[in-house]
Specification:
CATH topology of one domain: Rossmann fold
Largest sheet: 4 strands, parallel
Number of strands: 4
Helix content: 25-40%
Distance between the termini: 28 Å
Radius of gyration: 17 Å
Strand order of the largest sheet: 1-2-3-4
Strand content: 5-15%
Structural class: alpha/beta
CATH class of one domain: Alpha Beta
């Protein structure tokens, strides 16, 4: 939900075909709706008929943006294209509000966690530290609530869904009609970048 554009640092698309622009997360206004938040992102795009690519929560964002502007296509990675693809625990969180009890404030203390290794693997902590650009608790609480309460039933048109079969956040057994990356986890955009460099240009052309 808070990863910086650095997660795409190893993705190399042919420069004679594609020009890449990266959007940074913005802090939502108090009680801002997801619709209004996505509308602010749309204003950052100057080109006509862009291809929008989003990973995880970013996948939800670009789908909402595509409802507000004309796009060539939308690519979502390690994400969901319908609220029907939520795993059971997220559906439970939506009905009970349990997600509001998660200790999102710990993200603001990633340096401390990295120093003392409080029960989290060093590799994961270093990954969070290197790639999480937004460590604002209000943003994290807001984003978590928006993705849990997302209600899209029918996938949008011109959508390409790329998903790993080892994704623990959105397990593949709940995902329909996607391009499956063998061995891909929720952070495969980082760890499986070679697959994307080999296959993404063809999918976008």
């Amino acid at each position: 939900m808070a990863a910086s554009p650095m997660i795409y640092e190893h993705i190399k698309l042919p420069q004679d075909c594609f020009e890449c622009h990266f959007l940074e997360w913005i802090i939502p206004d108090v009680d801002e709706t997801l619709e209004n938040y996505c509308r602010r992102f749309c204003k950052m795009i100057q080109d006509e008929n862009p291809i929008l690519i989003g990973t995880s929560f970013g996948g939800v964002i670009v789908q909402e943006m595509a409802k507000m502007m004309k796009v060539d296509r939308v690519v979502i990675i390690s994400s969901i294209k319908s609220s029907l693809e939520f795993p059971r625990r997220m559906k439970l969180a939506r009905s009970t509000g349990l997600h509001k009890l998660l200790p999102t404030s710990l993200v603001e203390k990633s340096e401390l966690l990295l120093k003392y290794n409080l029960g989290i693997s060093k590799r994961k902590l270093e990954l969070y530290h290197n790639y999480l650009s937004v460590k604002n608790q209000y943003y994290l609480d807001w984003a978590l609530d928006k993705i849990i309460s997302w209600q899209q039933i029918e996938p949008i048109k011109n959508l390409i869904h790329i998903h790993g079969d080892k994704d623990p956040v959105f397990p593949i057994k709940y995902i329909k009609n996607c391009i499956t990356v063998p061995g891909g986890t929720h952070v495969m955009i980082i760890h499986r970048y070679r697959w994307f460099n080999e296959n993404l240009p063809g999918l976008l052309s």
